[in-house]
Write a structure and sequence with these properties.
The protein is mainly α and 467 residues long. It has 18 helices and 12 strands. Bound molecules: glutamic acid (GLU). The site of glutamic acid (GLU) has 7 residues, from loops.
C-alpha cells in the first residue's frame, strides 16, 4: 500500500512535467489501494501566487485526479517545523551558527580562490563560548563527517554520496523560517509517505533530506527520481515546446484522457502499447518501469492520441466538452450525425468545433477558386433539377444512403462527372470544396435548408467572396 504525494510550489503554473510526476504518484497510490496527497509547498511567501495555486487545483480537477483529504499547506505548519528544529537543537544534532554574511562571503571567496567547492567550514559546530552580539543565528544540522549516504532509487538504482560532500547545511534561517529540505522531510515523514516520486532535478536534495530523516529518527521512504521531459532537440522544454500551463491544453482542445495517456507514456512503457485507458494505467503502472533516460516531447503524438480519444468517447461527452468552446449542440436533433461526420477528422476539440460550425452556420463566403473551376454553364440548371428531385421525394429521403440512392440515377441520366455535381453543391452548402460527403451534409442539413443554401448560391451567382 503506497502513500504518495505531489508537492508543488505555487510559484508558477503547473506544467506537464509536474502533472506527469503527479500522475505517476497518483497511479501508484491508487493501484496499491494506498493514498495520494496534495501538499502545497508555500513557505516562500514572497514568490507564492494565489492564481498559480488555483490553477494547480483546477488542473487536478480537469484531469480527474482526485487526491485524498484536504490539501496540506506548509504555511500552516510552521509550529510543527519549529518543534522539530528545537528537538534537534536539544539533542545536540543541530546548532546555532553565528557566522555573519561577511564572514560567509569571505570564506566562500577563499575557497573559490583555492579551487575548492564552497562549503561551510563547521566553525560553530562545537561552539560553546559566548555568541557574538547583534547576529541572529541560523540553525545548521550536524551532517555526518564521514561515511556514505546510500539508497536504492526506484528509477536510477543504487545511489551513493560521500558524506564529506555535504556540509552542515542550514535548516532554519536567521528569521526562524525553516528551509526547503527540512520542511519537505518533516512533512513526508509525518504524512506517512512510503514513496517519494519526483523529478530528478530534486536528486541533489535527497542526501540532505536523508541526513534530516536520520537525525529525526524517521523511517526513510523509497525514492524514485523521474528523468526530465526534453524538447525534440534534447534541450530543456520551453513554453513554445509545450511547457505550458496544464489548463492551456484544455483551451487548445485536448481531452484530459489524451493528455494523461500522453504523459504516462512519456517516461514509462508497457511493451509497445500506446493507448492506455485510466483502467489500464491503473492495472499496469509500476514505477519500476519508469525510463532511466529523459524523454522527448512529441506534439504529433499528443495530437494523434487526442484524435483517438475524440473518435472514441461518446457523442454525449463530446457535446459536453464542446460547450466549453461555446459550441452548443444539445438542442440540435442532428447532433449524432454531425459529430459522427466531423469527429473522424478532428485532432482537437477546437478543430471539431470549426468543422461543426461550417455545417451549422450558413456560408459567409464562397471559395473563389472552386467556384471558378466548377460552376459552369449548365450548373444552375443542373442544381435546379437536383433541388426539384429531392424536394419531390422529400418524404422518403432521410439518411445519407437515401440521398445516395436517388442521386446516382440522376448523375447517370445527365451524364455528369462527380465533381460537376458535388463541388457546386459543396460550395453552396459550406462555402468550400473541402467538405465531407455531400450525402452526409444534406442528411444533416435536411432538404429545406439544403435547398435554401443552394438557391442563395445561385442568386449570388457563386461569385461573391463575401455574402
Ligand atoms: N516543491 C517541489 C517542486 O515544486 C517538489 C518537492 C518534492 O517533490 O520533493 O519542485
Amino acid at each position: 500500500m503506497a502513500i504518495t504525494r505531489f508537492a508543488p510550489s505555487p510559484t508558477g503554473y503547473l506544467h506537464i512535467g509536474g502533472l506527469r510526476t503527479a500522475l505517476y504518484s497518483y497511479l501508484w497510490a491508487r493501484k496499491t489501494k494506498g493514498e495520494f496527497k496534495l501538499r502545497i509547498e508555500d513557505t516562500d511567501t514572497q514568490r507564492n501566487n494565489q492564481d498559480a495555486l488555483q490553477a494547480i487545483i483546477k488542473a487536478f480537477d480537469w484531469v480527474g485526479m482526485e487526491y485524498d483529504g484536504e490539501e496540506v499547506y506548509q504555511s500552516k505548519r510552521m509550529d510543527i517545523y519549529e518543534k522539530y528544529i528545537q528537538q534537534l537543537l536539544d539533542e545536540g544534532k543541530a546548532y546555532k551558527c553565528y557566522m555573519s554574511r561577511e564572514e560567509l562571503d569571505a570564506l566562500r571567496e577563499r575557497q573559490m580562490a583555492n579551487k575548492e567547492n564552497p562549503r561551510y567550514d563547521g566553525r560553530y559546530r562545537d561552539f560553546s563560548g559566548t555568541p557574538p552580539e547583534g547576529i541572529d543565528p541560523v540553525v545548521r544540522i550536524k551532517a555526518p563527517l564521514e561515511g556514505k549516504i546510500e539508497f536504492n532509487d526506484g528509477v536510477k538504482g543504487a545511489m551513493s554520496f560521500e558524506n564529506n560532500t555535504v556540509d552542515d547545511f542550514v535548516i532554519a534561517r536567521s528569521n526562524g523560517v525553516p528551509t526547503y529540505n527540512f520542511v519537505v522531510t518533516v512533512d513526508d515523514a509525518l504524512m506517512g509517505m512510503t514513496e517519494v516520486i519526483r523529478g530528478d532535478d530534486h536528486l541533489i536534495n535527497t542526501p540532505k533530506q536523508i541526513i534530516i530523516y536520520n537525525a529525526l529518527g524517521f523511517d526513510l521512504p523509497k525514492f524514485a527520481h523521474v528523468p526530465m521531459i526534453n524538447n525534440p532537440q534534447g534541450k530543456k522544454l520551453s513554453k513554445r515546446d509545450g511547457a505550458m500551463d496544464v489548463m492551456d491544453y484544455k483551451n487548445l482542445g485536448y481531452l484530459p484522457e489524451a493528455l494523461l495517456n500522453f504523459l504516462v507514456r512519456l517516461g514509462w512503457s508497457n511493451g509497445d502499447q500506446e493507448i492506455f485507458s485510466m483502467e489500464e494505467m491503473l492495472e499496469l503502472f509500476d514505477p519500476k518501469n519508469i525510463n532511466k533516460s529523459a524523454s522527448s516531447y512529441n506534439e504529433e503524438k499528443l495530437l494523434w492520441l487526442n484524435s483517438h480519444y475524440i473518435k472514441n468517447v461518446s457523442n454525449e461527452r463530446l457535446s459536453k466538452e464542446l460547450e466549453f468552446f461555446d459550441c452548443k449542440l444539445e438542442n440540435n436533433d442532428k447532433k449524432d450525425l454531425l459529430l459522427d461526420l466531423c469527429k473522424d477528422r478532428a485532432q482537437t476539440l477546437v478543430e471539431l468545433k470549426t468543422a461543426i460550425e461550417k455545417f451549422v452556420n450558413k456560408p459567409t463566403t464562397y471559395e473563389k477558386k472552386g467556384s471558378k473551376k466548377f460552376v459552369k454553364e449548365g450548373t444552375f440548371e443542373m442544381l435546379n433539377n437536383y433541388m426539384n428531385l429531392i424536394e419531390e421525394n422529400k418524404e422518403t429521403l432521410i439518411a445519407a444512403s437515401d440521398f445516395e440512392n436517388i442521386t446516382k440515377p440522376f448523375i447517370e441520366k445527365y451524364e455528369l462527372k462527380f465533381p460537376q455535381i458535388f463541388q457546386p453543391i459543396r460550395i453552396s452548402l459550406t462555402g468550400s470544396t473541402q467538405a465531407p460527403s455531400v450525402y452526409d451534409i444534406i442528411a444533416i442539413l435536411g432538404i429545406d435548408e439544403t435547398c435554401r443554401r443552394i438557391r442563395t448560391a445561385i442568386e449570388k451567382n457563386f461569385d461573391k467572396e463575401t455574402i
